Request: fold
Amino acid sequence: MKSKAKRWSILTQLLLFLMPLITLFISTSSYLQYKRAVDSLTERELQKKENIEGGVKLFIDNYDLSLCF
Reply:
């Protein structure tokens, strides 16, 4: 009795055995790229908020100083 692997063509064997590995690799790398992008965007947003906050504080300090004179 022949095994199933012997009856399948080479192309079929490649598709059955390599495609799950390729799919796993692509999905893992996509997930990691997504996480890096989200982290990068979150960091940029925090930096923007800090910059705006610093600018507003500087403006208020300068305004207070101008009212004293």
The chain has a mean pLDDT of 90.
